[in-house]
């Protein structure tokens, strides 16, 4: 097809692309179309013939037109600017240059066709896009939430800095693109990684799903993960995840939940009041304390819950003052309960203020003080009374005596103090147990109270010690009361169908002659009571000033006794035990002796009880035991073995490791256990039956003999004779003394001997002084005797001599 010149012009001017034809040699514009004229803001006519440099605006273009264009054939495509002469603006253009050879072989006949596409709009939209992108990035990076976008295949397209922070993405994952590593890292940060992985897989399967999940991360953060589909033209193209740190929120919520639980489950009664001090809420503890359901209480004024002496306004003024000064008010109030009851509560009422500082709400905490008040009352009672008997204790007695002394200054009257101690009450406790002893003490207290007038006062000081204040009393009244008390005590008591009587010792002091203060009067009455005990108990006596001197000498004696062992003032003597039938010595009782440089010969009857009271008997007894075992080993070594009997006190027997020590001693001196016998009193055997039996069994297993000393003077329970491994009974010398004339003693001794025989237990009579006694005992079937008739206890050396002289007294024969 051939295009006419007219048609070409129409096409040339019709195209929207600016074009001009430049003479390659002259560098002048030969032709320009109308689009070119519009682009540069000139007319076509103005442009044609114009040097091409006239339109150059950039240094690069100047260089371009200044160089040879011979090489331009395939065309040049570049971006540049042209100036619009009309507006003066630079217009960005997309420029193409094409070389055209007009006639063959004439290099001068060469043209350059320039086409320019205005890029203004394209560049503007490009800038707009970049600006939008940077805005979007800035927005993402400044977002408080972590954001991550991915496509439908799960490939990560973008995430922001916050996401990196929340998930603590390591630096290397920020520098290189590794979606799999990022996902693995994120999963590893979730506490339940497996569950999270499954959840993500499930979300990926549902492109249109909108999700919200709470994630607990290993770093302690709680994160809310939301995900929404990313839609392009209504179709899912990917997914946007956002992650919000809700740790604080979760903490607050947990705190609120906890507070609600505390409110609901608190044992304290709690109410919340509004700004007008009307009850808004109460907890179950409060309902319980009030005895009313919340509905009946909510809306009532807080002050209406209490029974108060003050009126409402006065009380609230006080409360407000507390709120102003400390933020709370605290005090004891009487709470109204259901059915007109009341209870005492401790109210702590705290004001909660709004931002402006006004009291918006208040919380009241109430603690029931009933138990505390009861305990307080009990403490006061206990402070003034004896818990066991309920009798007043020393405090009220002090007050009473102080008042009596004060009153006596006016009218000169006197009063008496009686110090009363139950005799051998320890035996009751030891044998029948403390609970039984406690019940006896209560009965005693009742009896004693019955002997007194209203104006007198009976107190228990502790243990088995009582003090009686006799109001307006002289020596005669005191004595008659003491006598009445003793008669009353001797009247049989009944407990658990057991009848018994109690003996007591009473010491008395008088005001004002024996002291002008309670402490002195009690001390002196106590001293008098001691003297009564020493004289044989079961009686009463008045304080005499020289008694204190006696007490002092007791203390001196105790001190001397403790020194005696180290100073060699103690010795062990041996008293022979003789076989009735043969007259041979078959054993010896070891008896301790003390000769003091100051006190002279002190009887064991005096110092053994002192040693028992002070606990020194443990040391003393261990020493006697060692001497006796050593001596018996010596007898055996001399070919004259004999059984040695050693007295063991209750305290010694109770010592842990007693059996082990005996066993070690026997081993140390090489004495076979059968040559040792332990003498125990009945009181020892009754201490704690079970524990006692274990020790006795262990001793029996060792092969040591056991005898019961002073048999018949204690409880003489047949039960333990049957149960325990006893080898011998020792008839007390008090029964032997009455033989053969006293029918009662004869009957007792006969009974003991018969019982021994029946139970196959040996019987020894002690304190045999006459042939008549020996014959009587022999006639009754008693096996052995011990007493002055044969010999008193003698030093070890004398005893050895005695054994070596068969002609002088009893012959010795070892028999066991
Ligand atoms: N725990 C320990 N107690 C001991 C020890 N040594 C002695 N005692 C106890 O002291 C009490 C008094 O003992 P004592 O003054 O030695 O009297 C004993 C004998 O000397 C005395 N006796 C012996 N024969 C006669 C006699 O014919 N007539 C008479 N009037 N008295 C006599 O009897 C006492 C022996 O008592 P007993 O032990 O009951 O067999 C006394 O209770 C001793 O037990 C010791 O080392 N440890």
What does this structure look like?
This protein is an alpha+beta fold and 816 residues long. It folds into 5 domains: 5-118, Beta-Lactamase, CATH 3.30.450; 137-250, Beta-Lactamase; 267-373, Beta-Lactamase; 385-545, 2-Layer Sandwich (Alpha-Beta Plaits), CATH 3.30.70.270; 559-812, TIM Barrel, CATH 3.20.20.450. 43% of the residues lie in helices and 26% in strands. Strands 24-25-27-28-29-30-31-32 form an 8-stranded mixed barrel, surrounded by 6 helices. A 6-stranded antiparallel β-sheet has the order 12-11-16-15-14-13. The model is unreliable at 807-816 (pLDDT under 50). Bound molecules: ligand LFPHGCPZ.
- Tally the helices: what do you get? 31
The hetero compounds bound to this protein are: ligand LFPHGCPZ
Poorly predicted sequence stretches spanning 5 or more consecutive residues: 807-816
Shape: elongated
- Provide mean pLDDT, rounded: 88
Major beta-sheet overview: 8 strands, mixed, barrel
Number of β-strand runs: 34
Q: How much of the residues is beta strand, in percent? A: 25-35%
CATH superfamily (homologous) name of the largest domain: EAL domain
* CATH arch. level architecture of the largest domain: Alpha-Beta Barrel
CATH class of the largest domain reads Alpha Beta
Catalytic activity: 3',3'-c-di-GMP + H2O = 5'-phosphoguanylyl(3'->5')guanosine + H(+)
Protein name: Diguanylate cyclase/phosphodiesterase with PAS/PAC sensor(S)
InterPro entries: Biofilm_reg_signaling, EAL_dom, EAL_sf, GGDEF_dom, Nucleotide_cyclase, PAS, PAS-assoc_C, PAS-like_dom_sf
Organism: Alicycliphilus denitrificans (strain DSM 14773 / CIP 107495 / K601)
């Amino acid at each position: 097809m051939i295009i006419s010149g007219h048609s070409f012009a129409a096409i040339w001017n019709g195209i929207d692309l600016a074009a001009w034809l430049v003479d390659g040699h002259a560098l002048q514009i030969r032709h320009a179309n109308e689009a070119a004229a519009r682009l540069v803001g000139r007319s076509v006519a103005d442009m044609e013939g114009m040097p091409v440099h006239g339109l150059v605006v950039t240094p690069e273009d100047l260089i371009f037109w200044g160089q040879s264009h011979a090489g331009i054939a395939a065309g040049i495509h570049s971006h540049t600017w042209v100036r619009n002469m009309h507006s003066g603006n630079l217009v960005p253009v997309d420029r193409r240059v094409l070389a055209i050879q007009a006639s063959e072989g004439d290099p001068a006949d060469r043209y350059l066709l320039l086409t320019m596409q205005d890029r203004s709009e394209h560049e503007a939209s490009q800038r707009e896009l970049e600006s939008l992108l940077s805005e979007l990035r800035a927005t993402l990076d400044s977002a408080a939430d972590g954001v991550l976008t991915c496509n439908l295949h799960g490939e990560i397209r973008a995430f922001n800095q916050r996401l990196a922070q929340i998930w603590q993405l390591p630096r290397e994952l920020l520098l290189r693109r590794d979606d799999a590593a990022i996902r693995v890292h994120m999963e590893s940060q979730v506490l339940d990684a497996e569950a999270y992985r499954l959840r993500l897989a499930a979300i990926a399967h549902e492109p249109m799903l909108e999700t919200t999940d709470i994630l607990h991360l290993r770093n302690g953060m709680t994160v809310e993960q939301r995900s929404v589909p990313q839609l392009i033209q209504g179709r899912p193209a990917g997914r946007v995840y956002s992650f919000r740190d809700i740790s604080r929120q979760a903490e607050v919520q947990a705190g609120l939940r906890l507070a609600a639980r505390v409110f609901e489950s608190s044992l304290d009664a709690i109410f919340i009041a509004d700004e007008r001090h009307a009850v808004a809420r109460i907890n179950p503890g409060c309902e319980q304390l009030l005895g009313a359901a919340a509905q009946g209480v909510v809306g009532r004024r807080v002050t209406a819950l209490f029974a108060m002496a003050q009126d409402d306004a006065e009380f609230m003024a006080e409360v407000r003052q507390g709120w102003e000064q400390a933020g709370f008010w605290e005090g004891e109030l009487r709470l109204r309960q259901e059915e007109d009851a009341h209870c005492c509560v401790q109210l702590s009422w705290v004001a909660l203020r709004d931002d402006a500082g006004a009291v918006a709400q208040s919380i009241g905490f109430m603690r029931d003080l009933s138990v505390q008040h009861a305990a307080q009352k009990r403490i006061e009672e206990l402070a003034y009374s004896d818990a066991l008997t309920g009798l007043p204790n020393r405090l009220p007695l002090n007050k009473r005596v102080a008042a009596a002394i004060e009153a006596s200054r006016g009218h000169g009257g006197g009063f008496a103090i009686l110090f009363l101690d139950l005799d051998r009450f320890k035996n009751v406790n030891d044998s029948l147990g403390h609970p039984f002893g406690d019940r006896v003490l209560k009965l005693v207290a009742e009896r004693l109270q019955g002997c007194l007038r209203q104006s007198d006062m009976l107190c228990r000081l502790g243990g088995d010690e009582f003090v009686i204040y006799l109001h307006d009393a002289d020596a005669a009244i005191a004595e008659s009361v003491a006598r009445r008390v003793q008669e009353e005590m001797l009247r049989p008591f009944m407990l658990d169908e057991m009848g018994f009587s109690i003996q007591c010792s009473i010491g008395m002091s008088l005001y004002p002659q024996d002291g002008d203060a309670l402490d002195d009067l009690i001390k002196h009455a106590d001293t008098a009571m001691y003297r009564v005990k020493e004289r044989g108990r079961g009686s009463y006596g008045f304080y005499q000033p020289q008694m204190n001197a006696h007490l002092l000498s007791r203390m001196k004696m105790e001190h001397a006794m403790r020194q005696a062992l180290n100073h060699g003032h103690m010795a062990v003597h041996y008293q022979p035990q003789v076989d009735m039938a043969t007259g041979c010595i078959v054993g010896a009782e070891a008896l301790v002796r003390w000769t003091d440089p100051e006190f002279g010969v002190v009887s064991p009857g005096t110092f053994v009880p002192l040693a028992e009271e002070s606990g020194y008997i443990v040391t003393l007894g261990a020493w006697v035991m060692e001497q006796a075992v050593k001596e018996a080993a010596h007898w055996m070594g001399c070919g004259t073995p004999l059984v040695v009997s050693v007295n063991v006190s209750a305290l010694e027997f109770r010592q842990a490791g007693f059996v082990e020590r005996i066993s070690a001693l026997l081993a140390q001196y090489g004495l076979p256990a059968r040559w040792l016998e332990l003498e125990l009193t009945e009181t020892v055997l009754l201490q704690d039956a079970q524990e006692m039996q274990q020790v006795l069994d262990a001793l029996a297993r060792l092969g040591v003999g056991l005898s019961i000393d002073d048999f018949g003077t204690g409880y003489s329970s047949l039960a333990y004779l049957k149960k325990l491994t006893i080898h011998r009974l020792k008839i007390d010398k008090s029964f032997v003394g009455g033989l053969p004339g006293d029918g009662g003693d004869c009957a007792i001794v006969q009974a003991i001997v018969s019982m021994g025989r029946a139970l196959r237990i040996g019987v020894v009579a002690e304190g045999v002084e006459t042939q008549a006694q020996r014959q009587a005992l022999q006639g009754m079937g008693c096996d052995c005797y011990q007493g002055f008739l044969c010999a008193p206890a003698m030093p070890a050396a004398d005893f050895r001599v005695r054994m070596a002289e068969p002609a002088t007294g009893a012959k010795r024969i070892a028999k066991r």
